Amino acid sequence: MVDAFKPPFTQANRDTGCFMNLPDFIRSIPDFPKPGILFRDITPLLGSPSAFRETIRLLADHYRERKIDVVGAAEARGFIFAAPLAIELGVGFVPFRKPGKLPFETHAFHYELEYGTDSLEVHKDGFAADQNVLLVDDLLATGGTMAACCRLVENSGARVAGCAFIIELTGLAGRKLLAPHDSFSLLKYE
């Protein structure tokens, strides 16, 4: 079930009168990756230049008036949205990667997932002390991956300025795990 999507009207869509219903670009696939799961597929959104552009614009509009020094994201789908968002906000991008994928000295964090454990690493010089870091991912489910990103940012001496998502699965309560950090989602599903 989709919550009503009512984007803020940006100057661009006020001027053009355009409105794009982003849920129209999310495909629901039952029983993937296993029976009982309803998978929310973002590939139709990515395949539409106008929907993809509007997604980045809506995220940027939410954070444009805040002091953001850098945008960070975990691989792989987080990269898809974080890199263009960083460009739109005029800041740099820092990747969080699986162990052994970054060539320089790293900080690592090990965390629990719905189906096991995982680890993320970030370059030790990825964030400067006191920087405001906006973290981005495509989906907020249980919150484990984003919580790991928050810990890595904080361990570096930087601050989490917010956690942004395209989709939030509200029934899994990932937002609670991220508290007290601010979380923002464009679309919410139960």
Quick synopsis:
This protein has 190 residues and is of the alpha/beta class. The chain is built from six helices and nine strands; from the N terminus they run αββααβαββββαβαβ. The radius of gyration is 16 Å and the shape is globular.
SS class: alpha/beta
Q: What is the count of DSSP helices, taking H or I runs of 4+ residues? A: 6
Mind summarizing the main beta sheet? Answer: 5 strands, parallel
Secondary structure: helix percent: 25-40%
State mean pLDDT (0 to 100 scale): 90
Quickly count the domains.
1
**If you compute it from the alpha carbons, what radius of gyration comes out, rounded to the nearest whole angstrom?**
16 Å
CATH architecture: 3-Layer(aba) Sandwich
Distance separating the two termini: 6 Å
CATH class: Alpha Beta
Strand content range: 25-35%
Report low-confidence residues grouped into runs of 5 or more.
Answer: 1-17
What name does the CATH topology carry? Rossmann fold
The main sheet orders its strands as: 4-3-7-8-9
Q: What is the 3D shape?
A: globular
Give the SSE order as H and E letters. HEEHHEHEEEEHEHE
Total beta strands: 9
How do the strands and helices of this protein lay out in sequence?
Layout: H1 11-16, E1 27-30, E2 38-41, H2 43-46, H3 49-63, E3 70-74, H4 77-89, E4 92-96, E5 106-113, E6 116-123, E7 132-140, H5 144-155, E8 159-169, H6 174-178, E9 183-189
Parallel strand pairs: 3-4, 3-7, 7-8, 8-9
Antiparallel strand pairs: 1-2, 5-6
